[in-house]
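User: Before I run my own analysis I want an independent prediction to cross-check against. Here's the chain; please return only the structure tokens and, at the end, one sentence I can use as a sanity check.
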Amino acid sequence: MDAVLLPYQQKWIEDDAQVKVAEKSRRVGLTWAEAADAVLTAAADNGTDVFYISYNMEFTKDFILTCAEWARNFQYAASDMEEEIVRDEDKDITAYKIAFPSGRRIMGLPSRPTTLRGRQGRVILDEAAFVENLAEVLKAAMALLMWGGSVRIISTHNGEDNPFNELIKDIRAGKRPYSLHRITIDEAIEQGLYRRILEMRNASKKENAVWTAEGEQRWLEELVEFYGDGADEELFCIPSRSGSKYFPRALVERSMDQTIPVAAYEQSDEFTYLADARRTADTEDWIADSLAPALTAARLRSAESGRRPRGYIGMDFARSGDLSVIGLFLESSELALEAIAYVELRNIPFMQQFQVFCYAADKLPGFSCAAIDARGNGQMIAELAAQRYGPAYVHQVMIARQFYLEYMPKYKAKFEDDAIRIPKHAGILDDHRAVVMDRGIPMIAEHTRDADGKKRHGDAVIAGVMAVYAQVNDDNTYQPYQYEPVTAPNPWRQGDNDDW
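Assistant: Structure tokens:
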């Protein structure tokens, strides 16, 4: 299999999740690889039936023929493709199948939820975004999980609001515990797709095409040109209508609370070169006036509630120009994140930013985990914090596109589930509105400016996403101290009232 399948195809087959989903470029051979796995599953003595569904019966027929070809390559005995009449409510429908000596079969079914009733085994939904009534078909397929079945969902995208894309967003937000694969044309080419195409052409046409980087780039450019305006969706896993605002204004405003303070600290350029003691003292004064009251109030509320909360910190770092923003959160009993304060630092030296962070971590009730943007200069603060509190308590996060792809949906899900509270603040709202879809990934767009004309760059969003990252990756479990007293003889005791 290693020599036949490309790495992303191998990764897909090796994933034994009960439900796995793939958003993919067209013509990358994932369905072909799934056919190989279907044959291995049905031909095994302890295997299961496999049911294939797509929106087009010609695709279904092709899949069954591909399975028959794999069976021959694997030297498994299998029947030729047969037609079977399936009774579906008020009419007969043609299905295609091949059978194995194991007693199992691979069957291609129409894309109707009723055709899955009473069946057990694996369900493959191919080009799911184009299946009519996908939600109902998915519901019928998931019913097979109860008896140990499995579901594979494969598709290119078909619009931002399509149920397939909604499923993808739910998985990334952590609402569905399914395995997710993403295969763009760029990733497929990087892992050898174009080279494999040349090999197949050479084998079938007796050509002797030689791979070159220039030829590969030209092939991709021609492919993009062929798909035209649809290239993003068809090749790069970007649902149509990209470029829209990621956070609707109403969604963010619903989670804003005007009682949550924003502690802002800004200094002049000259402040950087004052004596250490002076900078430390001035920052302590600001902390006492602006930050300490919110932390003191949070500790009092926690003490009155009688429960020990978990505290999380997310920090987006900047030294000049943009803001450093620190979000201080407590986790509710329902796992919601409730900010007790946001800190905005503008033009503050490294050591004073670290001073503020340490005060917040020391005083935050139940401080359990923090995540800090460790790109560029932020690496210094992140490393100092990890050295002080331990790497299990401070995650040093190198933000890249994959980070946005994985954690921005989880952060957005907090708003959608009404599971987060942040300060009601115009700049923070602008930060959220600065997030747009960029090639299928929510990213911070251009700089914005606050009411004073000072630059922002989605800083509060990153602080919030970092807090969610800290919550998701918090392995610091708290075990309350408990004991049972045991009476022991005391030879030094002279009498019942002798405490000595």
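Sanity check: The CA atoms of residues 489 and 495 lie 12 Å apart.
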